[in-house]
Amino acid sequence: MPRGNTSVSNIVREIVESDPCLVEALSNGYVNYSKLSERLAEVIREEYGVSCTPSSIKMSLLRSRSSVARQSLKSRIFRVLARSSIELKTGLAIVTYDYTVLHKVFKSVHELAGRTRFISISQGIDNITIIVNTELLDDLVGLMDKEPVWLERDVSAIIIVSPIENIETPGFISYITTLLARKGINILQIMSAHSDTIIVIDRKDSVEAFKTLESIILKAKEDSKEPLK
C-alpha cells in the first residue's frame, strides 16, 4: 500500500479503496463500524507504524460514507481485473510515421508479419505508430524508406487481457494508469483493442510496472475467489 501520506484519514481511505469487498460492504451498510475500526487500528499500527485509536478510525469511516457509496465503480473494475490475465513482452521498439505514408506502413508490416513475434499498429489523426520486436526494426525502417517522426528502442509492453466487460466499465484504464503514475512510471503509449490493453513503457520500468499490475490482479482474483489463470 502507498505510505507517502501517514495521516490516519488518508491511510483509512487507501485501505478501503484497495479492498473491493470492504467497499461493497460499506456501500451497502452492513458493516459493524466498531469492530471494523478496532481491526483497522491494529492493521495501521502494525503495517504503517502509526499510532491511532479505534474511535479516530470510526470517525474517518463515518466521514467518508458518502464517497464510499461511489466506490461501487471500483468494485466493477476489480471484478474485471479478477478475470484478467497479464503478460510482459520485452525487446520491442516503437516507431511513429506521418499519416501520409499509411499505405506504405501496411505494406511493410505485411511483409514482416511472418517474421515477427509481436506487432501492433495504432492510427492517430496525424500519425501512425508501430510496435515491433527490436530485431526487425531496421528492416521496417528500411522498407519505409522515410525518416520516422519518433523512434524508441528497447521498450517493453504489458498486455492485460480482460473480459469484454472492460470496455463497458468506466475508469478501467484510468485505474491502471493511476497505479503506474503513483510509482512514477511513465507510459510511452497505451492502446485498447477489444479485450486487450497494451501499455508501452521503457525497459527500465518494466519489472516494477509488471509487478504493480500483477499484484492488483492477483488481489482481485483472491478477493473474488476465482482461480488463477
Automatic annotation (TrEMBL):
Keywords: Kinase, Transferase. It comes from Desulfurococcus amylolyticus (strain DSM 18924 / JCM 16383 / VKM B-2413 / 1221n). Residues 161-229 form the ACT domain. InterPro entries: ACT-like_dom_sf, ACT_dom, CASTOR_ACT_dom, UCP014439_ACT. The lineage of its organism: Archaea, Thermoproteota, Thermoprotei, Desulfurococcales, Desulfurococcaceae. GO terms for molecular function: kinase activity. This is Conserved archaeal protein, aspartokinase domain protein. PROSITE patterns: ACT (PS51671). Gene3D superfamilies: VC0802-like (3.30.2130.10).
